[in-house]
């Protein structure tokens, strides 16, 4: 399974390869920044839920369906206030997306 759906990315960028690279670079930077804060238990749950929501929207915009789905689960769980939030699967999905983006750049 691809981490980034190129058909969705093309739809979002109108097939413009330069724009797609730019969007993927922005997404990669956002992933790195958000994941570090999202996994910080010292941050309030509502702030972490907002970060998950942002990541979900960004992932949807580049066709990173697995990241989008797992960020949605994290957001829902954080907003519910029920127990600790397991973010390992989301971190793995982000890592896969970042790896795929890096591989496409070479």
What are the salient characteristics of this protein?
single chain; 106 residues; mainly alpha; 5 helices
Helices and strands, with pairings:
Layout: H1 6-13, H2 17-38, H3 45-62, H4 65-80, H5 88-105
Helix pairs in contact: 1-2, 2-3, 2-5, 3-4, 4-5
Residue fraction in strands: under 5%
Overall form: elongated
Oligomeric state of shown chains: single chain
Helix content: over 70%
What's the average pLDDT? 93
State the helix count.
5
The major sheet is characterized as: none
User: What is the gyration radius calculated from CA atoms?
Assistant: 14 Å
Give the SSE order as H and E letters. HHHHH
Question: Helices and strands: which structural class?
Answer: mainly alpha
């Amino acid at each position: 399974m691809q981490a980034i759906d190129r058909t969705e990315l093309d739809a979002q960028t109108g097939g413009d390869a330069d724009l797609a690279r730019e969007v993927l670079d922005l997404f990669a930077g956002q992933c790195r920044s958000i994941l570090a804060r999202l996994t910080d238990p010292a941050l309030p749950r509502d702030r972490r839920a907002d970060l998950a929501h942002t990541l979900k929207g960004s992932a949807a915009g580049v066709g990173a369906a697995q990241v989008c789905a797992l960020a949605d689960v994290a957001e829902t769980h954080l907003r519910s206030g029920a127990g600790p939030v397991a973010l390992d699967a989301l971190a793995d999905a982000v890592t896969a997306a970042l790896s795929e983006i890096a591989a496409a750049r070479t």
